[in-house]
Every structure is written in structure tokens, then in C-alpha cells.
Design brief:
Layout lengths: L1 H25 L3 E6 L13 E8 L5 E8 L10 E5 L7 H7 L4 E3 L11 E3 L9 E5 L9 E2 L7 E2 H18 L8 E6 L2 H18 L7 E7 L7 H13 L5 H15 L6 H14 L51 H7 L2 H6 L19 E2 L6 H7 L5 E7 L7 H10 L4 E10 L2 E11 L2 E8 L6 H4 L1 H12 L5
Parallel strand pairs: 4-7, 4-10, 9-12, 10-11, 11-13, 13-16
Antiparallel strand pairs: 1-2, 2-3, 3-7, 3-8, 5-6, 14-15, 15-16
Pfam families: Peptidase_S10
GO molecular function, one term: serine-type carboxypeptidase activity
GO biological process, one term: secondary metabolic process
């Protein structure tokens, strides 16, 4: 252990020197701060939180903001996760405060003038170091120094993520040897394998800076805009008794029409209308929860936001029943984050953002990757690990569609479909594939919606801990 410690120390010092030289050569501009306290939490933070900006581009004219939390268990040996939130345009702070981060809002203070924060016992930082990144530019507190630099796309997000990570290690060289996982949910799940391949390509080109790639994780993730994904939503709704056999058959015809425009008759469009009517008052993000159609987003198209900012126009009142709509619980995120004392504590640069929004609808974004499946195929030929998980009550991206593309990879089935357990109870189902060193686990999370980590945090922590450790679910 003593020799291992000194060997790691020497490697880290050498890498720090190399990165320092590179930063001088490339004019790397970065800023970071260790955050000790946060408004709403009345104690010193019991974990290490670092926030900061990383400048990318030739003139560092894009400034990407991040939140980094060291693992609460063993920062040096635990994996490092680069987390991308869905949207595109949704801030990493959303997942930090609502899903897998170490702090959540105290539900008993949501009606007060300033919400309080409590520790999340099911944070993924219990088992991993996590970077929550505001990507693409314009998301969260990330900004550009000129209007033309606000343009982004699927492919540009991937190159920006790689450039960010490459420069991030300048300030954090001791994590260069940690196993790196690229992770994200919802729309970000489409971009994750693209980012992973970009880092892999960077490793091949730049032999000096080898990032220790291990695998990727996607949750409730769409991978393309294939019209048959829409049919899988209809098929899933049929399984959940939300439409009839007739609507299921009509959905199949509709899918055929979408793939073959000549077949898209008036009848197909009418069938589509009937299907939409069946699902209109059903909460697509969780089919068993109340529908919040007056405030809930339209998430029927993956080309639009899958994680909508539904909270900006929501005002809490004593008369409103808090439990009636999950989206109401998002309001404190904007309330808290836009408070000047919070932004000062997070070390936000004044004047760079007029207002923080959880999900920015107005990001200038080109959906230039219509299908991420080829990226999964490319990576499945290499010796990495992948985890694809889905809430089994999600009708935005039904698990049936995720399971379909997983099986379309035509990998060797190692562990057939079976339940997985926690505390002696079935909490989902899983199957595992392995071929030529590539390992892929698919898992459902029982009772979870879109996205699973928000609905079933305890189960998702157990899932990721087992998977990171290499143990079967």
C-alpha cells in the first residue's frame, strides 16, 4: 500500500508537470473554487465540492461551468463519472439537486421563502467522483463571449466535452488514473456514446494525455428519431392497458407510414390522432402518476427537450396540493439557484447570465446525429463496459425500445432475462451480454419513470454500485 501510494504520487506529479506545460502552450484558461458552505445548508459541507469554468476553443471563448464532487468513499480508487444531463439544454445542477447529487431540497421547506437543503443518502457520490457539466454552451451557467459561439450540436457537444475533460485534468491531475465513465440520461443518453468515441479518438491521437476510459452509462435514453420508436411507445401503452388492440395495430401502420412517406395516408394521420387521444391525459413521464398537462411539457419528440423546464412558470401556493404534480417540486431549484447569495457561493461570474433556468429551451442547437446506434455498434467491438437502464413506467422512452436496440447489437447473451433484487425484493429485471471483451448490461427499475434516478434513488444507487464493482445485478 505504501509503495502504491508513492507510485501514484510520482505519476500524479509527473502528469501535473506535463499538464502545466501543455496549459502554458495552449493558453488554457480555467477557474475553480472549493465550496465549503451553501445557502440553505446550515453546516460545513461533509463532502468536497468544487465549481468552476473551463475555457474551450482557440480563444477560450466558450466557458463551460461544472460542479465536481469527490467520492465520499475513496476518491483515488473510485471511478470518475462525467455526467451529462438531458435536454439538450438542461443544467447539471438539476441532476445534482433532484437526482443523483449529494444534496436535495427539504420537502418540508418548499413553501418557505427560501428552501433548505438536506443530505441525499442515495447520492452516487457515495461510490464515485462525479463531474456535473453544463453542456452545451448556454446551458446552466455555461456561456460564450460572443453570440456566434453559442451555436452547438450533437457532434459539437461531443468535441466540447472531450476538450473540457482534457483541460479539466490540468486542475485535477490526481484523477487521471481513475476509471472514467461517461454517463447521462434522457436526450443526453443519445450523446454519451458519441462523447465516449470522441475521447477514445483523442486517446489515439494524443499519446501524452491518456484518459483511462472504462465504459459508459445511459438512463431512459433515446438513441435516434426513428419512427418505430414512436411505435414502441404505442406498444408499451398497450402493455400498460392504455390503448386497445386496434390502436396497437394502427400504431404499426403509422410507423410504416412514417418510414415510407408514400404510405402515410389520411387514415394513418387519423390513427395517430386516436392514439394521441388515448394517451393525452396520461403522464408520459410516469404512467401511474397524475397527469400535469397544464404545466407538463410535450415530450413526444426526442428532437425537443425530454427534460423540460416546467418550473419557471410555477408558483407555489397554500391552496395547491404539493403531491398532485411532480413538476411542482422543481420550482425550488430555480428559486434557490437564482438567489444572489447562492450564485456568489457557487462563484458564478457576474453578468454572464441574466437568469439561470433548469432547462434552456433557446439553446442554438442542431440535432445533427439522427441515429446513435452506429456509435453503440462501434464501441461494442472494443473492450469496454456499458450499462443501459430504464424506468419501467416511462412512456417517454419506453424500456421496450431500449431493449430492442440493445438486442439489435446481436451480442452473445451471457445472463438471460431475470429479476434483480434489493433487500429481498424484486426491483427490476436485467440481462447481460458479452462479446470479445465488450460487456453490456440492460436493466429496468421497477416503478420508476423518466428518469429512473429521480423516482427510485435507493434502487439506482444499489444498481450502479454493483455495476461499478463488476458484480451482477
Amino acid at each position: 500500500m505504501f509503495l502504491k501510494y508513492h507510485l501514484n504520487l510520482k505519476i500524479s506529479l509527473f502528469l501535473l508537470f506535463v499538464f502545466f506545460i501543455n496549459s502554458i502552450e495552449n493558453n488554457v484558461v480555467m477557474a475553480q473554487t472549493i465550496i465549503r458552505t451553501l445557502p440553505g445548508y446550515n453546516h460545513t459541507l461533509p463532502f468536497t465540492l468544487v465549481t468552476g469554468y473551463v475555457g474551450i476553443g482557440e480563444a477560450d471563448d466558450v466557458q463551460l461551468f461544472y460542479y465536481f464532487i469527490e467520492s465520499e468513499r475513496n476518491p483515488i480508487d473510485d471511478p470518475l463519472v462525467l455526467w451529462l444531463t438531458g435536454g439538450p439544454g438542461c443544467s447539471g445542477l438539476s441532476c445534482f439537486l433532484i437526482e443523483i447529487g449529494p444534496l436535495h431540497f427539504d420537502p418540508h421547506t418548499l413553501d418557505e421563502s427560501f428552501p433548505s437543503l438536506i443530505l441525499n443518502p442515495y447520492s452516487w457520490t457515495k461510490v464515485a467522483n462525479i463531474i456535473f457539466l453544463d453542456l452545451p454552451v448556454g446551458t446552466g451557467f455555461s456561456y460564450a463571449t460572443s453570440a456566434e459561439k453559442y451555436y452547438s450540436s450533437d457532434t459539437k457537444s461531443a468535441t466540447d466535452a472531450y476538450d473540457f475533460l482534457h483541460k479539466w485534468f490540468v486542475n485535477h491531475p490526481r484523477f487521471i488514473n481513475n476509471r472514467l465513465y461517461v454517463a447521462g440520461n434522457s436526450y443526453a443518453g443519445k450523446v454519451v456514446p458519441v462523447v465516449f468515441r470522441e475521447i477514445l479518438r483523442g486517446n489515439e491521437v494524443d499519446q501524452r494525455t491518456q484518459i483511462n476510459l472504462e465504459g459508459y452509462v445511459i438512463g431512459n435514453a433515446g438513441i435516434n428519431n426513428d419512427p418505430m420508436e414512436e411505435y414502441e411507445r404505442v406498444s408499451y401503452a398497450h402493455c400498460m392497458d392504455l390503448n386497445s388492440d386496434k390502436e396497437l395495430a394502427n400504431g404499426s401502420d403509422y410507423g410504416e407510414g412514417r418510414m415510407n412517406p408514400g404510405l402515410e395516408s389520411h387514415q394513418c394521420l387519423y390513427d395517430r390522432h386516436l392514439i394521441d387521444q388515448c394517451l393525452y391525459d396520461t403522464g408520459k413521464e410516469h404512467v401511474l402518476e397524475p397527469s400535469c398537462s397544464s404545466t407538463a411539457p410535450d415530450v413526444s419528440n426526442l428532437g425537443k427537450l425530454l427534460l423540460e423546464e416546467a418550473s419557471n412558470e410555477i408558483i407555489f401556493s397554500a391552496e395547491r396540493e404539493k403531491s398532485s404534480c411532480r413538476h411542482y417540486g422543481y420550482a425550488p431549484v430555480s428559486q434557490w439557484t437564482n438567489d444572489p447569495t447562492v450564485q456568489e457561493a457557487l462563484q458564478i461570474r457576474k453578468g454572464t447570465k441574466e437568469k439561470w433556468v433548469r432547462c434552456n429551451h433557446s439553446v442554438a442547437y442542431d440535432f445533427d446525429i439522427t441515429n446513435a446506434f452506429p456509435y453503440h455498434q462501434f464501441l461494442s467491438k472494443r473492450k469496454y463496459s456499458a450499462l443501459a437502464y430504464s424506468g419501467d413506467r416511462d412512456c417517454v422512452v419506453p424500456y421496450l425500445f431500449s431493449l430492442k436496440w440493445v438486442r439489435d447489437l446481436n451480442l452473445t447473451l451471457e445472463d438471460k432475462w431475470r429479476p434483480w433484487y434489493m433487500d429481498g425484493q424484486v426491483v427490476g429485471h436485467t440481462e447481460k451480454y458479452e462479446e470479445n471483451g465488450f460487456r453490456l448490461t440492460f436493466a429496468t427499475v421497477k416503478g420508476a419513470g423518466h428518469t429512473a434516478t429521480e423516482y427510485k434513488p435507493k434502487e439506482c444507487l444499489a444498481m450502479i454500485d454493483k455495476w461499478f464493482s463488476g458484480h451482477p445485478l
